[in-house]
Amino acid sequence: MPLAATLDVTTNRAVSFSFRVVNDGTSAIDLTFRSGKRADVVVRDATTQEEVWRWSDGRLFTQALQRATLRPGEQIEQSFEWDDPESGSYVVVGTLEADQEARAETELSI
Amino acid sequence: MSDDDMPDTDFSRRDVLKATGGTLAVGAMAGQAGASDRVEVNVGFSGPQGRNAAENAAESVNREFNFDAMTIEINESARENLENNPNIRYVEDNGTMEAHDQETPYGIEVTDADTAIDDGTTGDGVSVAILDTGIDAQHETLEANLGEGWATDDAACTTNCGGGPFGGGNDIEECLEEWDDDNDHGSHVAGTAAAADNGTGVVGVAPGATLHAVKVLACDGSGSFDGIAAGIEWSADQGHDVQNMSLGADSDSDVVSDAIEYAADKGVVMIGSAGNDGPCSDCVGFPARHPEVIAVSATDEDDELADFSSTGPEVELAAPGVDTLSTVPRDDYDEFSGTSMSAPHVAGAAASVIADGTTDREDVRAELKEVAEDIDLDDNEQGAGRLNVAAAVEAEEEDDDDDDEEEEAEESVSVVTDEATDVGESSATLNGEVAELEGADEADVGFEYGESGGDLSNAVDAGTASGAFDATVDDLDADTDYEFRAVAETDEASDEGDALAFTTDEEEDNEEEESTAPVIDQFDLTDDSNPNWARVAVDWTVSDDDGNLAEVTTELNDGVDSEQSAVSGDSAAGTHELRERDGHGEVEVTLTVTDADGNETSETDSITLG
Q1: In this structure, are residues B41 and B63 in contact, taking their beta carbons and an 8 Å threshold?
Q2: From the CB of residue A88, how many other CB atoms can be counted at a distance below 10 Å?
Q3: Of A68, B344, B448, B501, whose CB has the highest number of CB atoms within 10 Å?
Q4: Are B165 and B9 in contact (CB under 8 A)?
Q5: Residue pairs between chains A and B whose CB atoms are closer than 8 Å
Q6: B contacts of A77 (beta carbons < 8 Å)
Q7: Do B222 and A67 touch (CB under 8 A)?
Q8: Cβ(B445)–Cβ(B409) under 8 Å?
Q9: What per-residue string of b and e applies to B563-596 under the rule 16 or more CB within 10 Å gives b?
Q10: How much is the average pLDDT of B491-504?
Q11: What's the predicted TM-score (pTM) here?
Q12: Is B78 exposed, middle or buried (0-12, 13-18, 19+ CB in 10 A)?
C-alpha cells in the first residue's frame, strides 16, 4: 500500500496528536470521504486493550461526500486534542476514514 | 469555470466535484465576470453549415429544437457576424432571459417544488433553521432570505482552518458574521431549502422562507454533541418552525436527544440526513433515527437510490441527493452529493406545507408522507416514498379531526391499516403500521376483524411495534368478504386505522369460475406539461364486480415513467401523473388494472403533449 501514515504525539496538559498520510507511491491516489469525518484517532489502554478515548465520539459530521487527490509525495495532516487524559500507558491508532486504507500506531505514557 | 485553475492539491469540494459536475453552465450565471455583455438569442439557421455557425458563435447552447433553430448565449460582439452569415435565418432576442439566468436544479423539478412555487406556495413567512457550518452572509440568492443567525464558540466562523486536504474549510477571506460559512456545506444545504426566486443562480424548494444559520459545525465539518444540542435549543427558543440537520454520527447522544424532544415540544419540525454509509441496511445515523426527526434517504435524478445512502426502518422519505446543484460562498454554485443534500428538500417542503396552513408538526409530517411518490424502492430505502412538494401542499388535513383528547395527551399514537396479504381460503395476513408514536417507545398492536357488514368482533394480537406489524388469522370462511383494521394502544393513547376489506379465496373445487375481471370505467388524459417536462395527468376509475381490486398501473411510452396504486374493494379512482423530461409530442399511456385473482384489464390511449 503506497499510502504511509505517521502519528506524532505531544503531551502538555492536553495531548495533541498529529496524524499525517503521505503518498509514497508513484501515481496519484484518489480518496473519497463519506462525511466530514476524514480521519479518526483511538486511544486504548496498553495492557487491557480497552478503548479509552475516540476523537469522533461525541461529534457529528456533515453528510456530503468529499473527494481529494493525493499526488506522489504529497502529504495531508490533521491534528486532534485529547483534553483530560488520566495517567497510564496507552496505544494510539490513527486511521484515514476514506475508501483507501492508511493507519498509524504509536505508544503513549502519561 | 472559475475554479478549474485551482491546483489539484486544493481540497475544496467545489474543486473536486466540479470535475463530476459536467454539464452545469456555472459561468453563465449572473455575477460572473463577462456575463453582462452576453445575451441570450434564438437563432434560426438553414442546413448544417448554419448550425455549425450558430454553435461556434455560442458561449453556451441552452436549447436545441427539432426544427432548424436553437437558443444560445452569445457575446454581443459576435452577434453581428452571425446575423450576416447567409446560412442564418434570424437572430432574435429571447424574451425570457431572466428565467434562464436562474437555473432550476433537478431536485426542485423532480419533487414538483417548481409546481408548488408556480401555484404561489413558497414557504412565505416560515422560518427554517439550518444547523450546519453556517450560511454565506452575502450570497446573491440567499441574502434576501437570511434572518438571524447564531454560532457556538467552537464552531464560530474562522478564516484559518488549518489548510491542506484535512482542513476542510473553504478559505473565505473574511468572516462577515460569526455564523458565516467557512466550509461550503451549510450554504449548499440552505440553498436547496430556500434559495430566493430572484432570477439569479438557483431556486430552492421554499424560496419565500426565512433561513436562519445555526452554526454548530466548525470549518472542518464537525461539531460536538453539546454544541448541536445548544443549537437545537437556541433555534427552538426563537420559535423557528423547521430545523434541518444535515449531519450525523454513528452513536446516539443523550443531550442531543433531550434537545430534540425539547424542540418537538415547542412544535419544531425536524429533518435529518439518513447518513452516507450505504450500501447498508438498518444503518440510519443519529440524529436522523431519533423518532422525532424525519429521516431522509438520497435518490438521484432517475429516482434510483443513491449507492451511498444509508437505509433502515427509520427512513421516512427519500429526496434527491446525487449531484445536487446549490449555492456555495461567495456567489458561487456547485454540485454536491450526500444525504446532506436530501434533507433540505424535505425541510423546504415542510416550510411550504406550514405556509399553506398546516401548523401542527405531526400533521406536517403526515402530509409530507401521505402523498410521497412510490418509486419502487423498499420501505427501508424510500420510507413513505420520494418527496412530492406540490402534492404535500395540496394534501387534505384529514387527521385534524382526530380526538382532541389525544392531541393533549403527552403520548400519542397513530396507526394505519395496510392491505391484507397472502389471502387464502381460510387464512390471511393482516398488515398495519404505527405511523407516529410520541412519548412511548412501542405500542401494543393488533387487529380487529369480522365479516363485512357486521361488527369487527374478532381480535388478534400482534405484540408490540413502533413500525410495521402483521398478524395471521386462520379461522376464516372461504369466499367471504372480510373487513379489518389495525389498532394500537399505549398507556395514555390509542388509535385505530381505517377498515380495509379482503375476500377469502373460494374453495378449490369452485376454481375461479366466478371471478370477474376488473373493468376500466374512466381513463382520461390531460396535458399538464411545462417547458422542461412533458407531463400527463391520468384520471382513472376502475371497478370489479367481485370486489377484489388489487392494483392500478399507468405507464408512459412503454415504461419511460410509471405509477402504481394499490386498490381494493369493488371500485377505486385516482389520478396519476406521468412525465418525461423534454418528451413533448405524442405519447401513449397504458392503464392496467389487476385484481387479487390475477385478472388483468388494460387500455392504451394517446395524447399530444405541448
Answers
A1: no
A2: 14
A3: B344
A4: yes
A5: 118
A6: 164, 166
A7: no
A8: no
A9: bebebbbbbbeeebbbbbeebbeebebbbbbbbb
A10: 88
A11: 0.59
A12: middle
